[in-house]
Specification:
The protein is of the alpha+beta class. It contains 4 helices and 6 strands, in the order ααβαβαββββ. The protein has one domain: Nuclear Transport Factor 2, Chain: A (Roll).
């Protein structure tokens, strides 16, 4: 898959809350940084590493927010990096614009970083 195709698959898996499909896009030792991690799990300082940590993080999010959805705004990609902008939507919460960068190596996400607007 191209990096852009990975981003599209990422959004699909996330919106379906299909955890294993989402994790299949990641390298086993991938790292993920998110401002939400800093808030919900302060001990991480916003950074987690590995599929087990990603699985725990997203499982918790899907359980707490069963109607959480990301609506694609833009995807810009080159051969090793994807920049995605999407709208985070959860009923009873204000919509939030989010940007996320995915670093790709050998067809897998090795790092991701989330920015809130």
């Amino acid at each position: 898959m191209t990096p852009e195709q990975i981003a599209i698959k990422w959004l699909e898996a996330f919106n379906e809350h299909h955890l294993e499909n989402l994790l299949s896009l990641y390298h086993n030792d991938a790292v993920h940084f998110s401002p939400k991690l800093k808030i919900r799990k302060p001990g991480t300082k916003g950074l987690i590493k590995g599929k087990d940590a990603l699985r725990d993080w997203w499982h918790d999010a899907f359980e707490r927010l069963p109607q959480l959805r990301y609506i694609k705004q833009t995807i810009t990609a080159n051969h090793q990096r994807v920049f995605m902008e999407y709208k985070r939507m959860v009923p009873a919460e204000e919509d939030m614009m989010v940007a996320e960068v995915l670093e790709i190596e050998n067809g897998l996400i090795v790092a991701s970083r989330v920015y809130h607007g």
